[in-house]
Protein backbone atom coordinates (compact mmCIF):
# COMPACT_ATOMS: atom_id res chain seq x y z
CA UNK A 1 0.00 0.00 0.00
CA UNK A 2 2.71 2.46 1.00
CA UNK A 3 4.32 2.21 -2.45
CA UNK A 4 1.15 3.52 -4.08
CA UNK A 5 0.87 7.30 -3.76
CA UNK A 6 -2.85 7.26 -4.44
CA UNK A 7 -3.49 4.82 -1.60
CA UNK A 8 -1.36 6.86 0.80
CA UNK A 9 -3.47 9.90 -0.05
CA UNK A 10 -6.67 7.87 0.41
CA UNK A 11 -5.43 6.79 3.84
CA UNK A 12 -4.99 10.45 4.81
CA UNK A 13 -8.42 11.30 3.39
CA UNK A 14 -9.97 8.43 5.40
CA UNK A 15 -8.32 9.69 8.59
CA UNK A 16 -9.48 13.26 7.95
CA UNK A 17 -13.04 12.16 7.26
CA UNK A 18 -13.09 10.08 10.44
CA UNK A 19 -11.77 12.95 12.56
CA UNK A 20 -14.22 15.40 10.97
CA UNK A 21 -17.15 13.25 12.10
CA UNK A 22 -15.67 12.32 15.48
CA UNK A 23 -15.01 15.78 16.89
CA UNK A 24 -18.55 17.28 16.68
CA UNK A 25 -19.93 14.46 18.85
CA UNK A 26 -17.17 14.45 21.47
CA UNK A 27 -19.43 16.37 23.86
CA UNK A 28 -22.04 13.55 23.93
CA UNK A 29 -20.18 11.46 26.51
CA UNK A 30 -21.47 8.00 27.34
CA UNK A 31 -18.49 7.08 29.54
CA UNK A 32 -16.81 10.40 30.45
CA UNK A 33 -13.39 10.71 28.88
CA UNK A 34 -13.59 7.28 27.26
CA UNK A 35 -16.60 6.82 25.01
CA UNK A 36 -19.08 9.04 23.23
CA UNK A 37 -21.89 8.78 20.71
CA UNK A 38 -20.16 8.02 17.39
CA UNK A 39 -22.02 8.30 14.10
CA UNK A 40 -18.45 8.26 12.74
CA UNK A 41 -18.57 4.53 13.47
CA UNK A 42 -19.84 4.17 9.91
CA UNK A 43 -16.59 5.52 8.43
CA UNK A 44 -14.04 2.70 9.09
CA UNK A 45 -16.06 -0.02 7.32
CA UNK A 46 -17.01 2.43 4.56
CA UNK A 47 -13.38 3.34 3.85
CA UNK A 48 -12.36 -0.29 4.27
CA UNK A 49 -14.74 -1.50 1.57
CA UNK A 50 -13.69 1.30 -0.77
CA UNK A 51 -9.98 1.74 -0.06
CA UNK A 52 -8.84 -1.55 1.51
CA UNK A 53 -5.87 -1.24 3.89
CA UNK A 54 -5.73 2.50 3.21
CA UNK A 55 -9.08 2.69 5.02
CA UNK A 56 -7.69 0.61 7.88
CA UNK A 57 -4.74 2.92 8.48
CA UNK A 58 -7.04 5.92 8.04
CA UNK A 59 -9.36 4.60 10.76
CA UNK A 60 -6.48 3.88 13.13
CA UNK A 61 -4.77 7.25 12.76
CA UNK A 62 -8.09 9.10 12.58
CA UNK A 63 -9.15 7.64 15.93
CA UNK A 64 -5.79 8.51 17.45
CA UNK A 65 -6.06 12.10 16.26
CA UNK A 66 -9.62 12.24 17.56
CA UNK A 67 -8.36 11.14 20.99
CA UNK A 68 -6.39 14.38 21.23
CA UNK A 69 -9.74 16.16 21.58
CA UNK A 70 -10.59 14.76 24.98
CA UNK A 71 -9.97 11.01 25.23
CA UNK A 72 -6.20 10.63 24.75
CA UNK A 73 -4.64 8.30 27.29
CA UNK A 74 -3.07 4.88 27.87
CA UNK A 75 -6.05 3.26 26.18
CA UNK A 76 -5.34 5.03 22.89
CA UNK A 77 -3.03 2.19 21.84
CA UNK A 78 -5.93 -0.25 22.04
CA UNK A 79 -8.14 2.28 20.28
CA UNK A 80 -5.60 2.42 17.47
CA UNK A 81 -5.50 -1.38 17.12
CA UNK A 82 -9.26 -1.82 17.48
CA UNK A 83 -10.05 0.80 14.86
CA UNK A 84 -7.40 -0.58 12.52
CA UNK A 85 -9.16 -3.96 12.57
CA UNK A 86 -12.54 -2.22 12.22
CA UNK A 87 -11.20 -0.71 9.00
CA UNK A 88 -9.35 -3.85 7.89
CA UNK A 89 -11.69 -6.82 8.27
CA UNK A 90 -14.70 -5.64 6.20
CA UNK A 91 -12.88 -5.52 2.87
CA UNK A 92 -10.95 -8.74 3.65
CA UNK A 93 -14.16 -10.63 4.39
CA UNK A 94 -16.35 -9.06 1.72
CA UNK A 95 -13.99 -9.46 -1.23
CA UNK A 96 -13.58 -13.19 -0.54
CA UNK A 97 -17.26 -14.08 -0.66
CA UNK A 98 -19.11 -11.45 -2.73
CA UNK A 99 -18.83 -9.38 -5.89
CA UNK A 100 -17.12 -6.02 -5.48
CA UNK A 101 -19.82 -4.11 -7.32
CA UNK A 102 -21.91 -2.27 -4.76
CA UNK A 103 -25.39 -1.24 -5.87
CA UNK A 104 -28.95 -1.15 -4.56
CA UNK A 105 -29.79 -4.05 -6.88
CA UNK A 106 -26.93 -6.32 -5.90
CA UNK A 107 -27.83 -9.94 -4.99
CA UNK A 108 -29.08 -10.85 -1.53
CA UNK A 109 -25.83 -12.75 -0.93
CA UNK A 110 -23.87 -9.52 -1.34
CA UNK A 111 -26.13 -7.72 1.12
CA UNK A 112 -25.72 -10.48 3.70
CA UNK A 113 -21.94 -10.61 3.31
CA UNK A 114 -21.77 -6.80 3.50
CA UNK A 115 -23.70 -6.62 6.77
CA UNK A 116 -21.89 -9.67 8.16
CA UNK A 117 -18.47 -8.15 7.46
CA UNK A 118 -19.46 -4.92 9.22
CA UNK A 119 -20.96 -6.74 12.22
CA UNK A 120 -17.91 -8.93 12.75
CA UNK A 121 -15.48 -6.02 12.53
CA UNK A 122 -17.66 -3.92 14.88
CA UNK A 123 -17.52 -6.63 17.55
CA UNK A 124 -13.76 -7.12 17.10
CA UNK A 125 -13.13 -3.39 17.55
CA UNK A 126 -15.19 -3.32 20.74
CA UNK A 127 -13.50 -6.39 22.23
CA UNK A 128 -9.96 -5.17 21.59
CA UNK A 129 -10.64 -1.76 23.14
CA UNK A 130 -12.72 -3.10 26.03
CA UNK A 131 -10.15 -5.77 26.85
CA UNK A 132 -7.25 -3.34 26.72
CA UNK A 133 -8.83 -0.71 28.95
CA UNK A 134 -9.94 -3.36 31.42
CA UNK A 135 -6.50 -4.94 31.87
CA UNK A 136 -4.92 -1.54 32.51
CA UNK A 137 -7.64 -0.80 35.06
CA UNK A 138 -9.42 2.13 33.44
CA UNK A 139 -12.95 0.81 32.87
CA UNK A 140 -14.68 -2.60 33.14
CA UNK A 141 -14.89 -4.64 29.94
CA UNK A 142 -18.68 -4.96 30.11
CA UNK A 143 -19.33 -1.24 30.25
CA UNK A 144 -17.08 -0.17 27.40
CA UNK A 145 -17.15 -3.16 25.04
CA UNK A 146 -20.94 -3.45 25.07
CA UNK A 147 -21.37 0.24 24.31
CA UNK A 148 -18.88 0.15 21.44
CA UNK A 149 -20.56 -2.94 19.96
CA UNK A 150 -23.95 -1.22 20.10
CA UNK A 151 -22.67 2.08 18.67
CA UNK A 152 -20.72 0.46 15.83
CA UNK A 153 -23.56 -1.87 14.89
CA UNK A 154 -26.11 0.95 14.98
CA UNK A 155 -24.21 3.29 12.70
CA UNK A 156 -22.15 0.75 10.77
CA UNK A 157 -24.98 -1.51 9.65
CA UNK A 158 -27.28 1.38 8.71
CA UNK A 159 -25.17 4.36 7.65
CA UNK A 160 -22.34 2.52 5.90
CA UNK A 161 -24.54 1.03 3.13
CA UNK A 162 -26.49 4.28 2.81
CA UNK A 163 -23.27 6.15 2.06
CA UNK A 164 -21.44 3.40 0.20
CA UNK A 165 -23.95 2.51 -2.49
CA UNK A 166 -24.58 6.00 -3.93
CA UNK A 167 -20.92 7.04 -4.04
CA UNK A 168 -19.39 3.76 -5.23
CA UNK A 169 -19.98 4.28 -8.99
CA UNK A 170 -18.38 7.74 -8.90
CA UNK A 171 -15.34 6.56 -6.93
CA UNK A 172 -14.83 3.62 -9.24
CA UNK A 173 -15.06 5.82 -12.33
CA UNK A 174 -12.48 8.11 -10.71
CA UNK A 175 -10.07 5.20 -10.33
CA UNK A 176 -10.10 5.28 -6.53
CA UNK A 177 -11.46 1.79 -5.79
CA UNK A 178 -8.82 -0.33 -4.06
CA UNK A 179 -9.43 -3.50 -6.08
CA UNK A 180 -8.86 -1.56 -9.30
CA UNK A 181 -5.59 -0.14 -8.01
CA UNK A 182 -4.03 -3.35 -6.67
CA UNK A 183 -4.32 -6.87 -8.04
CA UNK A 184 -5.32 -9.20 -5.22
CA UNK A 185 -5.61 -12.98 -5.18
CA UNK A 186 -8.59 -14.35 -3.30
CA UNK A 187 -8.10 -17.18 -0.79
CA UNK A 188 -11.64 -18.16 0.28
CA UNK A 189 -10.55 -21.25 2.25
CA UNK A 190 -7.95 -19.32 4.26
CA UNK A 191 -10.36 -16.44 4.79
CA UNK A 192 -13.05 -18.84 6.00
CA UNK A 193 -10.63 -20.37 8.51
CA UNK A 194 -9.76 -16.89 9.77
CA UNK A 195 -13.42 -15.93 10.08
CA UNK A 196 -14.19 -19.08 12.08
CA UNK A 197 -11.40 -18.24 14.52
CA UNK A 198 -12.59 -14.64 14.79
CA UNK A 199 -16.22 -15.64 15.45
CA UNK A 200 -15.11 -18.17 18.05
CA UNK A 201 -12.96 -15.49 19.67
CA UNK A 202 -15.87 -13.03 19.68
CA UNK A 203 -18.14 -15.60 21.34
CA UNK A 204 -15.55 -16.41 24.02
CA UNK A 205 -14.63 -12.79 24.72
CA UNK A 206 -18.16 -11.40 24.89
CA UNK A 207 -19.50 -14.42 26.76
CA UNK A 208 -16.72 -14.46 29.36
CA UNK A 209 -16.51 -10.68 29.55
CA UNK A 210 -20.19 -10.24 30.30
CA UNK A 211 -20.36 -13.18 32.72
CA UNK A 212 -16.91 -13.10 34.34
CA UNK A 213 -17.87 -14.85 37.58
CA UNK A 214 -19.57 -17.72 35.80
CA UNK A 215 -16.74 -18.03 33.28
CA UNK A 216 -14.10 -18.02 36.02
CA UNK A 217 -16.03 -20.62 37.99
CA UNK A 218 -16.47 -22.78 34.90
CA UNK A 219 -12.74 -23.01 34.27
CA UNK A 220 -11.77 -22.95 37.96
CA UNK A 221 -10.03 -19.58 38.15
CA UNK A 222 -9.81 -17.29 41.16
CA UNK A 223 -7.80 -14.25 42.22
CA UNK A 224 -6.41 -11.38 40.20
CA UNK A 225 -6.16 -10.88 36.46
CA UNK A 226 -9.40 -12.68 35.71
CA UNK A 227 -9.99 -10.45 32.69
CA UNK A 228 -6.73 -11.53 31.12
CA UNK A 229 -7.43 -15.17 31.90
CA UNK A 230 -11.02 -15.46 30.73
CA UNK A 231 -11.16 -12.90 27.88
CA UNK A 232 -7.55 -13.23 26.73
CA UNK A 233 -8.05 -16.53 24.85
CA UNK A 234 -10.88 -14.98 22.84
CA UNK A 235 -8.73 -11.95 21.99
CA UNK A 236 -5.89 -14.26 20.95
CA UNK A 237 -8.18 -16.14 18.57
CA UNK A 238 -9.41 -12.85 17.11
CA UNK A 239 -5.86 -11.64 16.45
CA UNK A 240 -4.79 -14.97 14.91
CA UNK A 241 -7.92 -15.03 12.76
CA UNK A 242 -7.32 -11.45 11.64
CA UNK A 243 -3.83 -12.38 10.44
CA UNK A 244 -5.10 -15.44 8.56
CA UNK A 245 -8.24 -13.91 7.04
Walk me through the structure.
There is one protein chain. This protein has 245 residues and is mainly alpha-helical. The protein has a single domain, classed as Arp2/3 complex 21 kDa subunit ARPC3. The protein contains eleven helices and two strands; from the N terminus they run H-E-E-H-H-H-H-H-H-H-H-H-H. Strand 1 and strand 2 (35-36) form a beta hairpin. Helix 1 runs antiparallel to helix 2 (43-51), helix 5 crosses helix 9 and helix 6 (108-135) packs antiparallel against helix 11. The relative contact order is 0.13.
* Domains (count): 1
Separation of the first and last Cα atoms:
18 Å
Figure out the total of helices: 11
The count of strands amounts to: 2
Provide a quick synopsis of the model.
The protein is 72% helix and 2% strand. It starts with a helix and ends with a helix.
Main attributes?
245 residues; mainly alpha; Arp2/3 complex 21 kDa subunit ARPC3; two-stranded antiparallel sheet; 11 helices; 72% helix; globular
SSE topology:
Blueprint: H1 5-22, E1 29-31, E2 35-36, H2 43-51, H3 53-67, H4 76-86, H5 89-97, H6 108-135, H7 141-173, H8 178-181, H9 188-210, H10 212-219, H11 226-244
Helix pairs in contact: 1-2, 1-3, 2-3, 2-5, 2-7, 3-4, 4-6, 5-6, 5-9, 6-7, 6-9, 6-11, 9-10, 9-11
Amino acid sequence: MWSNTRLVVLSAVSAALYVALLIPFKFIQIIPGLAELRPAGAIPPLCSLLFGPAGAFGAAFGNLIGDFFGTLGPGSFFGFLGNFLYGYLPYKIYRSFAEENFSWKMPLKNWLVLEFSIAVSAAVCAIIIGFGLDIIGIVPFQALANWIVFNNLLFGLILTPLILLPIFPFLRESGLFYNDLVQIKKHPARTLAGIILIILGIAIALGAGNCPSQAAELIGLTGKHLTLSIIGPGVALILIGSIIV
